[in-house]
Design brief:
The relative contact order is 0.17. The protein contains nine helices and twelve strands. The chain has one domain. The protein has a four-stranded mixed β-sheet. A four-stranded mixed β-sheet has the order 5-6-9-12. The longest helix is centred in the first third of the chain and has 16 residues, at 46-61. Strand 3 and strand 4 (127-133) form a beta hairpin. By secondary structure, it is of the alpha/beta class. It is 33% helix and 20% strand. The radius of gyration is 18 Å and the shape is globular.
């Protein structure tokens, strides 16, 4: 390792990792079978399963982008598509698995929630492990949760807007995310409502050779406003991980 790279690694204070202690970790490879297993694990409606499979077909047909950074070294067969860190989402930080909570404590997320934020969503690996929104916002009809929950609780809204700002056919990585998406944020602000304090989502990768495919959908009706902030970090490994997100507004 070069002296320059060692210096960069030491300076990156979010490069720490926690012991792997997962409820489920998929096998290697971004395959059609992996898409089917993912949808089945999430007990998704048929329309979302079909959307994923159509998107996977597009992913296989699309060529890699040839502009910008050289992405030719990405090995899609050497990536875990889905990692579940705990059985259910926590309603309080005390409900979050100890290793996961320690991570977010070190990142300062619970402290930021107490001081500055109207709502927080924290994703660890493939799924959101903690989510909250101020009661007064919920009473005003503001919706803030993970996208998996939104598919089950607000299917009509999600189905209307999902994949419309960024269609799966837009590019290879949009198709990849559309096939393997998991977690992410769902935000709905009714007409005329103004959310004064920010909503924040934080995405953390811990596992090596992990593919994190968060999917965020933000819908702000006419006359409404919201300040939404995302953060993302990962440990420093000698192997590659992949973060391929889609945010639709």
């Amino acid at each position: 390792m070069s002296k320059q790279k060692m210096k960069v690694n030491r300076a990156y204070r979010f490069g720490f990792k926690m012991p792997e202690n997962y409820v489920y970790k998929s096998g290697m490879g971004l395959t059609r079978t992996a898409v089917e297993e993912l949808s089945e694990m999430k007990s998704e409606p048929e329309w979302m399963r079909d959307f994923r499979l159509r998107s996977f077909d597009i992913f296989e047909q699309k060529i890699m982008p040839v502009w910008g950074a050289n992405l030719a070294q990405i090995d899609f067969s050497n990536i875990h598509s889905f990692v579940r860190s705990q059985d259910k989402q926590g309603k309080t930080w005390a409900d979050v698995a100890p290793e996961v909570k320690k991570t977010f404590d070190r990142l300062g997320i619970p402290e930021a929630e107490r001081k500055f934020l109207a709502g927080v969503s924290a994703q660890y690996e493939s799924e959101v492990v903690y989510s909250s929104v101020q009661d007064k916002l919920a009473k005003q009809g503001v919706l803030f949760c993970d996208t998996d929950t939104a598919v089950k609780k607000y299917p009509d809204i999600v189905k209307k807007y999902f994949g419309t700002a960024i269609p799966a056919a837009d590019n290879k990585f949009a198709a990849l995310n559309s096939a393997f998406w998991s977690g992410g944020s769902f935000v709905y602000i009714p007409a005329g409502k103004k959310v004064e304090l920010p909503l924040q989502a934080y995405f953390r990768i811990n596992a090596a050779r992990m593919g994190q495919f968060e999917r965020t959908l933000i819908i702000a009706e006419p006359g409404s406003s919201v300040h939404y902030v995302e953060g993302c970090t990962a440990p420093t490994y000698s192997s590659d991980s992949l973060h391929a997100a889609v945010v639709e507004i």
